[in-house]
Amino acid sequence: MEGYDNKDGYGKKNRDEIFSNAIRAGKRTYFFDVKATRKNDYYLTITESKKRYDKEGNYSFEKHKVFLYKEDFDKFSEGLLEALDFIKSSNKEANEVEELFVTEEQNTNSELIEGLEAEAYSNVEFEDLSE
């Protein structure tokens, strides 16, 4: 009976986990795991894992999980793509405004420097150099 318990747990785990992908992103790791229900329907778990340290320097992992079932795949992916598109377009607009500001600032600085250089050089007289 002793070996039976271990084999039973092993078989269940093998059946449940269909696919797994770990993505390391800075201090976080994201796990995308496809699992199966008893009726062999697939669902997705998304886990965020962060390493946390206590005052003594010991660490533990803080995990947050989202379960996504097949009836929600379409709405979830639409919402995710919409949010990502918004972020990309907002960042693009912000970058364009920033580039425009930096370009105008550079032009203003260039004009200022050219004006100072022209003023500095235009006041130089050769008689002043001979002293």
Automatic annotation (TrEMBL):
The keyword DNA-binding applies. Coiled coil: none annotated. Gene3D superfamilies: 3.10.450.700. The keyword DNA-binding applies. GO terms for molecular function: purine-rich negative regulatory element binding; RNA polymerase II transcription regulatory region sequence-specific DNA binding. Keywords: DNA-binding. It holds the Pfam family DUF3276. InterPro entries: PUR-bd_fam (IPR006628). Signal peptide: none annotated. Belongs to the PUR DNA-binding protein family. This is DNA-binding protein. It comes from Marinifilum breve.
